[in-house]
Amino acid sequence: MEEKDPTSPLRLAGGQLVDARRAGLATQGSGPHRMELVATINGVDYINDSRSTFLDAALESLGRMSTKVVWIVGDVSAEMDEGYVQDLLMEKVSAMVLFGRAIDAVEREGASPVQHLYVTDDLRTAVFLANELVLPEGAVLFSPACPSGNGFANYEERGAEFKRAVRDL
Fold this sequence. Notes:
The structure is a single chain. The chain has 169 residues and is of the alpha/beta class. The protein is 36% helix and 18% strand. The protein folds into two domains: 1-29, no CATH class; 31-167, Alpha-Beta Complex (Protein-Tyrosine Phosphatase, Chain A). The chain has six helices and six strands, in the order αββαβαβαβαβα. Strands 1-2-6-3-4-5 form a six-stranded mixed β-sheet. α5 (123-133) packs across α6 (155-167). The longest helix has 13 residues, at 155-167.
């Protein structure tokens, strides 16, 4: 049996494939469901990043943005309280729209990673709300930072719903 190199990107660290996730992020560019420009409406870019199914990927996408965004997200994690995450959010996010979770669940957890946090029942409503909140020449970034759920089988289905909602604006 061949011994694995401890510096291998597939090394298990802290119960997660941290190095593999970092290596995967480094190779991802734009494409379907990954930093995909869906439309520009009245100077606002609507970007589908449904493939970002964990926080690291969503933060990497936020870091690539050149303007303040309304971030449509599927979950708020405790990791968002970290100082470096808070700094990135303050720099890049004008408002955050959480879809598919009840407001009382967010309040119980005390999760408020940005000053302007809104909660909607579904993705379609989140897109319409983000359209109202976005600053002129800003962007709407759909980067869920969580696995599919909330009625979606996978990130492709979730991204397709985002695109339909944007086309209906």
